[in-house]
Write a structure and sequence with these properties.
Largest sheet: 5 strands, parallel
Shape: globular
Number of domains: 2
Number of helices: 9
Distance between the termini: 55 Å
Order of helices and strands: HEHHHEHEHEHEHH
CATH superfamily of the largest domain: Aldolase class I
Strand content: 5-15%
Low-confidence stretches: none
Length: 217
């Protein structure tokens, strides 16, 4: 990418933020993980540039930081801005947790409200120890080392007890769930039932409840 290309792509992020605001969205997230373009700049494994956007840590994060700065100016201050990061490449010599913490401090100062902590997806040499909750420690580390930042945990979090432990033990501020909703669109209702927490059902489903102590199922 030429510098002109970089500037053009950065402007597309700004334009998207403006459209999202006009469309009524309350939150946006910049996807800087998993080998997508923003993360390709961050990782020394994929970023082989020799100009001001490559080489040193400060240079490799420049593309993302500039986007955040421009988007934050266009996105209403009262609306949260999230950034998703691969907290590690899972490859020696690649992007790692220390890099993530250092980046989190910088982008928090630029107006990012939440770091969505995922991992991997950038290099075929990655060795990912996938297991339930395996990415949670990265969200915890960022939360503990970057005062004020909010963190989100992701990855193989599929049971109510996991969610309860993560939030209850202050390992992260938010749990993001994606594929579980594909398998169980009523995951929120079933989780609340399992934990014994009352939440209101959608009006269209009220008649489907079996009246119990918590008005579930």
């Amino acid at each position: 990418m030429t510098i002109a290309d970089i500037e053009a792509v950065q402007q597309t992020f700004v334009d998207a933020a403006v459209r999202a605001d006009k469309a009524g969205f309350d939150v946006i997230e910049l996807h800087g993980a998993h080998g997508y373009l923003l993360f390709e700049f961050l990782s020394p494994l994929s970023n082989q540039r020799t100009d001001q956007y490559g080489g040193s840590f400060e240079n490799r994060i420049r593309f993302l930081v500039e986007i955040i700065r421009k988007v934050r100016q266009a996105w209403p201050q009262q609306k949260p801005l999230f950034v998703r990061i691969s907290a590690t490449d899972w490859v020696e010599g690649g992007w790692n947790l220390d890099d993530t913490v250092a980046l989190a401090k910088i982008i928090y100062a630029e107006g990012v409200d939440l770091i969505d902590c995922s991992t991997g997806g950038n290099d075929p040499r990655q060795n990912i120890p996938a297991a339930p909750g395996f990415q949670v420690p990265f969200a915890t580390a960022v939360k503990e080392q970057v005062p004020g930042i909010v963190t989100g945990a992701v990855g193989m979090i599929t049971h109510a007890s996991q969610v309860s432990d993560i939030i209850g033990e202050d390992k992260a501020d938010v749990v993001f769930v994606a594929r579980k909703f594909l398998r169980n669109p009523s995951f929120v209702l079933s989780t609340a039932h399992e934990l014994g927490v009352y939440i209101k059902w959608p009006n269209q489903y009220e008649r489907g409840q079996v009246k119990t102590k918590y008005s579930f199922f």
